[in-house]
Design a protein that fits this description.
The protein is mainly α and 107 residues long. The protein has four helices and no strands.
């Protein structure tokens, strides 16, 4: 979602209005794309292979959904963790930097 509003550094959150607009645009886009894509896939296979066509359709949908779901969170978390200690150190927060370094480590 390219247009999605992003919180600014001096703001804690975004209001409901911009988020509602972004969700409506995303939902409309998915509604306009998913149904024709499923119809095209199912129309391209013979009736005897309908199960295989449905499996391919579901697999494509799941693989396509990975970046916006778990994949996006995975990348975001790794980038956040990588830059957290350096940012805290740059802002002269040594105690917090030490806590960030210890985050996730087992003793």
């Amino acid at each position: 979602m390219v247009w999605a509003p992003r919180p600014l550094p001096d703001r804690v959150s975004t209001g409901y209005g911009p988020m509602a607009v972004a969700i409506v645009i995303m939902g409309a886009g998915m509604g306009l794309v998913m149904a024709p894509a499923s119809t095209t896939i199912m129309a391209s296979v013979p009736a005897s292979q309908a199960g295989a066509g449905s499996a391919i359709n579901d697999t494509i949908r799941e693989v396509g959904g990975f970046p916006r779901g778990g994949g996006g969170r995975l990348v975001t978390a790794s980038l956040y963790a990588r830059h957290l200690a350096a940012t805290l150190h740059a802002h002269h927060a040594p105690a917090v930097t030490h806590a960030a370094d210890q985050l996730g480590r087992r003793r």
